[in-house]
Write a structure and sequence with these properties.
There is one protein chain. Strands 1-2 form a two-stranded parallel sheet. With 137 residues, the chain is an all-alpha fold. The protein has two domains: 41 residues; 60 residues, DNA polymerase, domain 1 (Orthogonal Bundle), CATH 1.10.150. The protein contains four helices and two strands, in the order αβαααβ.
């Protein structure tokens, strides 16, 4: 049964239904408007030709050469300072080698270094590949 307010339920107001209908209508209009309005197509910027000077570079690939071993140090002519550059030889041992050489003459072999006080097989093995004997001055 309808009442004078147009509602079968007297407790509900006409305002709530009105605003619900407005919301639905607005939603439909927005949806329809989005479908009818097409987005403007944006053209990409025009391409320009740029002249870039080219450089020709020749590249050759070579196998790396293994580093050459350092030249061997002649213990018969080396100074104490040069002998200090050897592993395990400090200023004291270098001085002893020079003193031994001056007292007894040139070394005949690398193994003769074992006669110098303070040089043992361990130090000799460290420097064996780095030293040589030759004729003294």
């Amino acid at each position: 049964m309808w009442t004078a307010s147009g509602s079968s339920c007297p407790k509900r107001s006409l305002g709530a239904r009105f605003w619900a209908a407005v919301a639905i209508l607005a939603g439909c209009l927005v949806y329809a408007g989005l479908r009818w309005v097409r987005p403007r197509e944006v053209a990409p910027p025009p391409l320009t030709v740029v002249d870039v000077p080219a450089r020709v570079v020749s590249v050759t690939f070579e196998e790396p050469k293994p580093p050459s071993p350092p030249p061997k140090l002649n213990i018969n002519v080396a100074s104490a300072q040069e002998l200090e550059g050897l592993p395990g030889i400090g200023p004291v041992l270098a001085g002893r080698i020079v003193a031994f050489r001056e007292a007894r003459g040139p070394f005949r072999s690398v193994e003769d270094l074992l006669q110098v006080s303070g040089i043992g097989p361990k130090i000799l093995d460290q420097i064996r590949a780095l030293v040589t004997v030759g004729e003294g001055p």
